[in-house]
Task: structure prediction
Amino acid sequence: MLVATAVPAERDAVARAFSGPAEDVRLPGALLRRTGAGSDLLAAGVGPALAAASTAGALTAAALDGRPYGLVVSAGIGGGFPPAAPLGSLVVADAITAADLGAETADGFLPVTELGFGTVTHRPPESLVRVVSGALGAPAGTVLTVSTVTGTAARGAELRARHPRALAEGMEGFGVAEAAAAHGVPVLEIRAVSNPVGPRDRAAWRIGDALAALTEAFGKLAPVFESWNPHDDQ
Ligand SMILES: O=C(O)c1cccc(C(=O)CC[C@H]2O[C@@H](n3cnc4c(=O)[nH]cnc43)[C@H](O)[C@@H]2O)c1
Result:
């Protein structure tokens, strides 16, 4: 399994859930933290483009090494849509959606798919979402990927109107999912809520609580990932 976070503080929060010695493995363009349990952790960078590039590098290196990953998890802190995703809570993506990939028109936003290009949503395996959401006691729903953190109530309301199932937003999930899809590897996204989506108040972000929730989550998930059978969805 490859776990891709944005920043080292998130990677380290995930790493705390894995016991045993870890080693760093340097790849061209990426530094992996290989846990004793055999999972690789990657601080893939902030934003969908860098996260996609770093994740693709790690996936390619593993494939060339003859040890392809069976699962990629995008994990980190994120903004939660109240009241479904309060501070310190966890959410699991059943849809990973690029919320600002498209065109603005006089009639509103058009996703790239309506322009005839690509995709705007990746769907993690249903059976995996079910068991992870159950193990964490966390809701499953859409997690949005944005290149600009929402900072006003108006933008938050617009996103919610376009994505009524949205629980949270982050900046990397869709990029990680694009890289995983290119390699035919299933993807999952887990966000720990550090702040509400809405008017910007950086001083009110509860980063420590969210990082602690991330550690606790991965502590619960080791047996879940181990027993998950990808063929359950086929
Ligand atoms: O300052 C710190 O100590 C610190 C520790 C861990 C993470 C950070 C970040 O700033 C991570 C940036 C990362 O967080 C995601 N994020 C968090 N809230 C939102 C949001 O409201 N909207 C979108 N993204 C959010 C995002 O994925 C960033 O990459 C700082």
